[in-house]
Amino acid sequence: MASSPQVHHDRDADCDRCDRHANLNGDSKTHLPKKPRLSFITHSEILTEFSHHDTSVARINNGSFGCCPASVLEAQRVWQLKYLAQPDNFYFNELKKGIHRSRTIIKELINAEHVDEISLVDNATTAAAIVLQQASWAFSEGKFDKGDAVVMLHYAYGAVKKSIEAYVTRSGGYVIEVPLPFPVNSNNEIITEFRKALERGKANGRRVRLAVIDHVTSMPCVVIPIKELVKICREEGVDQVFVDAAHGIGCTDVDMKAIGADFYASNLHKWFFCPPSIAFLYCRKSPKLSELHHPVVSHEYGNGLAIESAWIGTRDYSPQLVVPSVLDFINRFEGGLEGIKKRNHETVVEMGEMLTKEWRTNLGCPPDMCASMIMVGLPACLGISSEMDTLKLRTHLREKFGVEVPIYFRSPKTGEDGSTGYARISHQVYNKVDDYVKFKDAINQLVRDGFTCTLLTK
Ligand SMILES: Cc1ncc(COP(=O)(O)O)c(C=O)c1O
User: Fold this and answer.
1) How many whole angstroms separate alpha carbon 174 and alpha carbon 152?
2) What's the distance, CA 217 to chain centroid?
3) Residue nearest to atom 13 of ligand 1 (CA)
4) Ligand 1 center to residue 20 CA distance, Å?
5) How far is C-alpha 267 from the geometric centre of its chain's CA atoms?
6) What is the pLDDT of residues 127-154, one digit of tens each?
């Protein structure tokens, strides 16, 4: 893995400035550098950190798979070798401590009350399964009545919708979708639809047992006003609120006390620079915590979700162990995670506005309703008229133009002639303005050539 000596030097230089290194048991109070940095990561160091990226591709899709810098990959390799060198010692003396250290860092970053509230799991999909499995047991064991409602957004992630089908519908739960407008103009539009869905949920004497709310919807992407929606759930007597924040930490503001949900899951491999795959699942401390179990049952069953999740059989736990190294990487940037998030947001909005101005189209939402990703209307003449078209166009952009960007199809309302396709662009620290210019030029060329999606066969 390519990496400059400068990167190592920077990391080591941080060590005596970071509280984490003062106490390797992980019970320090803060993981931010004690002294302000005098210099920050340079442009060329960022290039080195991401030199494993394919330079022929304008990768404006951090949202799908995230990214991991070379220094973190190196740290991961060290953990993997430690395991391979002496697995028994690693298992008995290193693994639990290391995972606890990572959970402590996450606990502080997200303002949770206690480290027991934080479990590390593989991904948001696993976290959703943990929460929904518990709901399924509540239906089958009679804690919830058959026919009680579970509310989710229409734009919930496809895999999570399937999980709701598998765990909730199958156990007798009644699923209600909140239809959301797109393009969306204000939080109020979302709040109004959410309230209406809760009313439908409570019709005929039903109870709403669980609300599954995305923090940042995947496709189309919009930041959901979760604080307001969680508050409404509390007022309306919804039993449990699960926030699916696959795009949470590093992408938008994540504060457990301010949000107030029962469960909140965020990937760490999307916007937090961890290698694949790792997510945290926050479960607010309450007697109900003991009802949550990892779906892969192993020796630690019954010892609490965090401990169960820290051993689900023999596997590679290195993504869960590199969280301290990820924080070292993040703290090389001005303003740390906050600074990265703020600059990603500002730049993605700027790039989105540059593209919509060029194509005389619109953004999918106002800038303050997006985080580090934004929906950009594509020229209507591209003739995007189905989801299949979006996939074909995406492949065409990748193969013919070296641009990687996901595309969303939106059925036009009758008599309307706006964009039927929206691109979801992301911005992460490795992106350059040229990436977005490459995308702009590719679309401009297609428009000049009279291209329409009907010309694509695959
Ligand atoms: C809102 C949402 N939920 C869940 C997921 C699933 O994440 P993972 O594939 O890492 O489990 C995604 C992935 O993009 C997502 O956007």
Assistant:
1) 11
2) 9
3) 246
4) 30
5) 5
6) 999 999 999 999 999 999 999 999 999 9
Element (H, E) at 411: none
Query: Ligand 1 centroid vs 124 CA: distance in angstroms?
Result: 5
Residue with the two structure tokens 């080591």:
12
Q: What is the CATH number of domain 336-455?
A: 3.90.1150.10
DSSP 371-406: SSEEEEEPPGGG---SHHHHHHHHHHHHHHH-EE--
Question: 100-326 with 336-455: one CATH topology?
Answer: no
Distance from C-alpha of 69 to C-alpha of 198, rounded to nearest angstrom: 43
Domain ranges of the chain: 100-326, 336-455
Question: What average pLDDT does the chain have?
Answer: 92
Q: Which residues contact 124 (CB under 8 A, 6 or more apart)?
A: 157, 160, 244, 245, 246, 265, 266, 267, 279
Residue 219, number of CB atoms within 10 A of its CB: 20
Q: Is 124 in the pocket of ligand 1 (CB under 6 A)?
A: yes
From 244, 269, 272, 274, mutation site for ligand 1 pocket: most ligand atoms within 8 A of C-beta: 244
- The first and second tokens of residue 445, run together, are 């060329």
Does domain 100-326 match CATH 3.40.640.10? yes
- The pLDDT-based confidence of 416 (bands split at 50, 70, 90) is confident
Q: What is the distance in A from the centroid of ligand 1 to the CA of 157?
A: 7
Query: Would the CB of 266 count as within 6 Å of ligand 1?
Result: no
pTM for the whole structure: 0.92
- Crossing angle for the helix pair 226-235 and 187-202, to the nearest 10 degrees: 30
